[in-house]
Amino acid sequence: MKNAKERLLEIKNLIISFYSYRGIVKAVDVDNLVLYKGESFGLVGETGCGKTVTALSILRLISNPGIIERGEIIFNGEDLLKKSEQNMREIRGKAISMVFQDPMSSLNPVFTIGDQATRVIKIHQNVGKKEARERAIRILELVRLPDPRKIMGVYPHELSAGMRQRVMIAMALSCNPDLLIADESTSALDVTVQAQILKLMRELKEKISASILFVTHNLSVVAQTCERVAVMYAGNVVEVGKVREMFKNPRHPYTIGLMDSIPKLGEKAKELRGIEGMVPDMINPPSGCRFHPRCPHTMNVCKTQKPKMIEIEDGHLVSCFLYGESRQV
Fold this sequence. Notes:
Layout: E1 7-20, E2 23-36, E3 40-44, H1 51-58, E4 66-75, E5 78-79, H2 85-91, E6 96-99, H3 103-106, H4 113-125, H5 129-142, H6 148-151, H7 161-173, E7 179-183, H8 191-208, E8 211-216, H9 219-225, E9 228-233, E10 236-242, H10 243-248, H11 253-260, E11 309-313, E12 316-319
Parallel strand pairs: 3-8, 3-9, 6-7, 7-8
Antiparallel strand pairs: 1-2, 1-4, 4-5, 9-10, 10-12, 11-12
Helix pairs in contact: 4-5, 5-7, 7-8
């Protein structure tokens, strides 16, 4: 595995907005987020928190009416936001690949699996059709699809959901990317198939020494697959840390609320606690800390100032006025 402390990706001061007829949706406001080489990293949050938009911005796939207002996305030492569109086309699929939630919306229904897998390899690896086909078969074998040569000749609708997802993973890995982004890539699958896909991705990560960014609302996926995790709320990253530490000792009030909403094995049956209040309107988000209207520990400063991300323990960061130098009344 590559050096776990060597930075692969860093997102700095990223602001993304969507211009709608109702007003400007302030979707993402991320101060700093780091992904190291060779690690599995989770980006978790409820629906609408901005995690998928953040992931899409890495590949510069934010389309109208969305705009990246400002920020830096440093990948292998270079700012992707300064790259030309031609440069980004070369990076997409080769250095950075993405697996989406629904493979049927990503696979072309009128082309065979072989046509699509071969084309990806030909575009990014500059090889002939015959060599590209053989590489495609090998990568289908790698993701444990039965009879890969036969599958090369079938169409997406002829495969099960789990098999289509394996095809998408195979295509994403076919060019040995440095970073694989998995956006809710198992949420449409049943539990047993989901477990198989997650196990497969863990094993493939070790074989190709890639970093994986898991974008999910499912904390169990994070627990099974990730080494570190970042929690998002209303477009902001509120806490980052090692998965084991975050599950054992969450610090941000929102993260604590998330953990309290999970049933615990071995505990006596009790009523699950939810988070009071409603998710904010992102056209008019709360001032200061965006969680303060729902937070049980709100102070006056929370209503007017956005807390900075501070390190409270080794590798454990939190954006909250309850901790460290940010503590105010």
